[in-house]
Amino acid sequence: xxxxRDIRIVALEFAVPDDQAYGMARGLTARRGGAIIVVETDEGxxxxxxxxxxxxxxxxxxxxxxxxxxxxxxxxxxxxxxTIFAKHYHFGIQNQLVSLLSGIDVACHDAMGKVxxxxxxxxIGGRQRERVAAYASGGYFTATGNHETTLAAQLEPHxxxxxxxxxxxxxxxxxxxxxxxALARRIIGHDALLTVDSNGNYTFDGVMESIRRIAPYGIxxxxxxxxxxxxxxxxxxxxxxxxxIATGEALYTVFDMKRLIDGRLADVVQPDLALCGGLxxxxxxxxxxxxxxxxxxxxxWGTGVGLAAAVHFVASLPNYPHSDNVPFPxxxxxxxxxxxxxxxxxxxxxxxxxxxxEVPKGPxxxxxxxxxxxxxxxxx
Length: 380
Description:
CATH topology of the largest domain: TIM Barrel
Number of strands: 16
Order of helices and strands: EEEEEHHHHEEHEHEHEHEHEHEHEHEEH
Domain Mandelate racemase/muconate lactonizing enzyme C-terminal: 148-244
Cofactor: Mg(2+)
Keywords: Isomerase, Magnesium, Metal-binding
Shape: globular
Organism: Stella humosa
Number of domains: 2
Number of helices: 13
CATH superfamily of the largest domain: Enolase-like C-terminal domain
GO molecular function: hydro-lyase activity; isomerase activity; magnesium ion binding
CATH architecture of the largest domain: Alpha-Beta Barrel
Largest sheet: 10 strands, mixed
Strand content: 15-25%
Radius of gyration: 20 Å
């Protein structure tokens, strides 16, 4: 049985000029980064995963917990992670430790698939489909230029690419939200789904005013309307909002995810596999969502490794409670922001065509890093 011989981190960063920074209501960034987690087995097989957040902090947590993993089976990563939580419970679960464990989990699944000759989708539930729907995630606030002009410039190139849905950033103030939503609707037309994301920048009263203004434009979901831990706010919002609510990208481990799902505090649950606990937790979240008849749509905003994991995860999900006719397919977030870490780091990127991402067919995640490109963006 393949055992873990070593775990290492490859820290990546892609930067744009400061005047080309882009982002959300809480702020902009000129840098995109991520930590690629590499799990090496005693048989020479390597699995890759992704850990969200600052790689230097992730590396310090790896120094703490690596000994727990070395020598164990790649199939036993779940038990090791639970042991770490039990022994180091004082550290909490909203931190880079959980992001690290998420990346290790995905890397172990990649290695498992390579050992068994199975894709991750087949490994975690059976491949239910060969391609998954993707929504165009962008519509960012920008550092320079007229915000309506830059929003249009971000949306227009993708209107004819077959996307089922588009997402734009809002959340700086309700009046501006309405202007951005009205413009987006004019550009993408009435057939495409439109979702919005305020990244938790509002208090309850601000969200209600924002919803009042934008609901007439046909909002498919309103993402992160409140801060992640505003549990009472989400409970009240669910009874008063006139648009569907989506959240979950900033929740770590199954514990907070379960609280969100059990309370039916969102219509669409959005785990991020690079920080929620990896594929193991995502599978549990998927089961819990099915039990509560809630939709799920994984958040992706890092490197292509996290995107590959999300594609395999969605490919493994059954259509329940639907059968022949699925009103809205489960969608993967496909970032339209400038980010070389998404596709350029692979020898062959995940293929996109007519609004869908093809599920890689090779063993494990089915993607291979391009060493030269990875070296170009590696930082110490």
